[in-house]
Design goal:
2 copies of one chain form a homodimer.
Chain A (H helix, E strand, L loop, with lengths): L2 H17 L2 H6 L5 H13 L2 H13 L7 H16 L3 E9 L2 E13 L3 E3 L1 E3 L11 E8 L2 H6 L9 E4 L10 H11 L1 H7 L4 E5 L25 E4 L1 H13 L3 E11 L3 E9 L4 E11 L9 H19 L7 E8 L7 H8 L7 E4 L9 E5 L13 H5 L5 E2 L12 H5 L6 E4 L4 H4 L12 H19 L15
Parallel strand pairs in A: 5-6, 6-7, 7-8, 11-12, 11-13, 14-15
Antiparallel strand pairs in A: 1-10, 2-3, 2-9, 4-8, 5-9, 10-12, 14-16
Helix pairs in contact in A: 3-15, 4-10, 10-15
Chain lengths: 471, 471
């Protein structure tokens, strides 16, 4: 903080003290404040979240939809809910075609032989058995690929090497991620026989980052993979010096008849159990790490927060439901849940997800108008010791786990985690337990439990807030 | 720096000013000072080192002894010396058996199937064709393996998971490295059928770190590999919960008739060309990265420093010889050079190597007594702006490149680089160009060039220094 800001803050503090002395502030607390505060402080010392994340990454391991790991995870989830005292445990199956990675390799062939570190993008088609080989065309930015004329990549392998920007709010992912999601089809549109993208990563490491792609209908489906960051930079340097040829082999298979499961457990409300707050993280993970930050953390944070509330002698009025979403990486879980529960949408008070790792929360965003609601007046005081601001910006998009609910009109909240480190690890072999800082993990639980308790103990109707009450 | 130390330093500075005012200090400078100072400052802005390291890592790539990359590197080295104005360019061939990695894989088999990130240790024997499979025994420290009784590992796979300590001087490597160098034979002595060590690494990444092992004569040679750090920690956690079985396959081959080359070039001395200062780095590298920090950096730093001196209108008195050592990782280059040049040992004034990456130098260590020599009186003043101390400790062991010379009685110097980051990357796929910070690289060149010029322009005889002159 600058000296100027410090002085300003001190001035504001002084004014606040005059306007609302401590004694007055205390009498003004909502009835839920003391319990929420105690839950918050207990969460900081509780080891439930760590135990959950340790078990899911160690005892289950990676869990791609359709894999034996995902079947283990389903059983694990039910046992966790049982052991932690949840009720109304449900396993909701839905159809979800699965994709399985096979052997993958790539090499520079000219100017000299050199193996490259690559990983097939999720749902890529395999190469022909003998692989593909061709000269590369390197694009420094995705926009350069889009600017290339149709036919200009005939017989070539297109390589996009645009780096990703490190941002606290994770917005660098959206900007860079299009190269992974749409690059293969855009390259195919211009005649390319295969596609490579620099990993969508903020690291400088060779471990490549996978993630799902989306083929555009009507265009040839070409094989697509992500390069390690130094591999992308090497290709960029070599291509400036002369022609570079690459060989790539990808194997994979698809099972159109596979299924996935959304698994949920409730902390039943004491007086208004039919009003449900939906929270959770996703149980599935990419195959190459053990899915620690993506998203065993989210499972652990939301489960631990709900469990702490479940341990109270008297539950708050409303039900808190933890959903362990069964297919986020490949999509479909959120939509399946919304479809299966379409008659109950009116019961869902609010939805929120934890799906950006285990680093600290720095801001909370609520539905429009909620910041001015008297039922949440204590939220800033509860969050201040956790160094979390209650944002004046409403939650824009809660995330892909809760997208189906949000699209069906359920209000959403967003507990914004720092993404400064997340994309170093995300979707890579290095998404492992050791990357989780237990203190930051618990800061997440503390924020969730205090916020959840306030909402669950209140009668706030996020759908009925006056639109003009606040931003 | 603490306030106390700051006050102390200010006091010392004050005393120094009284004892030797600026004008007096300037007149006391050695004749070489001004040139050394100008070379130092030029080096900070010069791009020779970057150009060399970029070319070796981009145009040549990895260069294990016996590989096509090493043959390319030999030709590259001769061309570099020619292009940079070196004379007396020599390629000295020596016999060096080579080892080549083949396909490698390992998986947990029980309690569930999971691929592990491993890399064969240099010179490991291959596994039998079908691989080896066995229950693991995890040792938290190498000393625990040594404490295990003979026969206690019969049919087992021994796994040492001792972590490495991060230190500025790199001393953590020696302490941890024994698990890589000697662990396989110590495990075999106790009956193990295979051996795994946590990577000798300060990182927390899955990219495993290789490095050479040494089999003890008279003991069975068992296959040995290094685990990614999270893989080692996963095995450690799983083994605490119950039995863990692993399958491992390693392929490799050895060519006993391979050769390697030490390649050297001189900046010939103007008046005492037969007095030779030997510097350099090693040209060979492990196969999995592109050998940027280990040791294209050392090649680049020493070559650039010598080249800057070569560009002077008048060379200093003595010759500066850059040797690009042809087999450091597998050993033998230093000894081969000493053997081939055994009649010339008396000509070698001093030897030094750069083989700890490209991060900044923080201290210079000279032969015993040299710190008090009047010919080097200006060294602290030359190094101060680079934030380098001239150590009171004499250079103990210059390193494996110059070991042969040191053992033959050649005095050595050591320009100590920070190892705080080096062992995150060393011997791993992530030893790539992007890890080099050009500013720190040039700080190295600046230190080398100033020190080299002082020594080359002087008559200092490091063999004849009074032993009691300083520590």
């Amino acid at each position: 903080m600058s000296r100027h800001l410090l002085a300003l803050a001190a001035g504001i503090a002084l004014l606040s003290n005059i306007a609302s002395p401590a004694a007055q502030a205390q009498t003004a607390r909502q009835p839920a404040f003391k319990t929420a505060e105690a839950l918050r402080d207990k969460a900081l010392k509780d080891d439930t979240a760590w135990t959950v994340v340790e078990s899911l990454t160690t005892d289950v391991g990676p869990r791609l939809v359709g894999s034996p790991g995902m079947a283990r995870a389903k059983d694990w989830a039910v046992k966790q809910f049982e052991a932690l005292g949840f009720s109304n445990i449900k396993v909701e199956e839905f159809a979800k075609s699965s994709w399985t990675r096979g052997a993958e390799s790539a090499s520079i062939v000219a100017p000299y032989e050199l193996p490259l570190s690559i990983i097939g993008l999720g749902r890529t088609v395999p190469t022909p058995k003998g692989g593909v080989e061709g000269e590369i065309v390197v694009f420094d930015a995705y926009a350069d690929l889009i600017a290339a004329p149709e036919g200009s990549l005939k017989g070539k392998i297109a390589v996009v090497v645009q780096p990703m920007t490190r941002t606290q709010d994770g917005s660098g992912y959206g900007a860079a991620g299009i190269a992974r999601r749409s690059g293969a089809s855009e390259a195919a549109r211009r005649g390319a026989i295969a596609y490579l993208t620099r990993s969508i990563s903020t690291s400088d490491l060779r471990s490549p980052h996978t993630g799902v792609l989306s083929y555009t209908e009507g265009l040839p489906k070409i094989p697509a993979a992500a390069l390690g960051v130094p591999d992308a930079e090497l290709l960029q340097r070599l291509a400036r010096k002369g022609p570079v040829r690459i060989r790539m082999k990808l194997e994979s298979s698809v099972d159109e008849k596979a299924v996935a499961w959304n698994i949920s457990g409730d902390i039943t409300g004491s007086s208004k159990p039919e009003e449900v707050i939906v929270i959770g993280g996703h149980l599935d993970s990419w195959d190459v790490g053990t899915g620690a930050i993506d998203d065993a953390s989210g499972i652990a944070i939301t489960t631990a927060a709900a469990k702490l509330i479940g341990d109270l002698p008297t539950h708050p009025a409303r039900t808190i439901r933890v959903v362990m979403w069964g297919s986020e990486e490949s999509g479909g879980a959120s939509e399946a849940y919304a479809e299966a529960n379409k008659d109950k949408m009116g019961q869902f008070v609010i939805a929120g997800e934890s799906d950006l790792g285990a680093d600290r929360i720095y801001a909370i965003q609520l539905p429009k108008g909620a910041i001015a609601a008297p039922q949440l007046a204590d939220l800033p005081a509860l969050m201040a010791p956790l160094k979390i601001i209650v944002s004046r910006e409403p939650a824009p998009f809660a995330g892909s786990d809760t997208e189906g609910l949000q699209e069906a009109g359920v209000p959403v909240m967003s507990l914004r985690q720092s993404a400064l480190r997340y994309f170093d690890l995300h979707h890579s072999p290095d998404d492992t337990l050791d990357k989780i800082d237990p203190a930051q993990l618990n800061q997440n639980v503390a924020a969730w439990v205090a916020l959840l308790y306030l909402i669950a103990d209140s009668d706030i109707d996020f759908r009925a807030l006056p639109a003009g009450a606040a931003k």
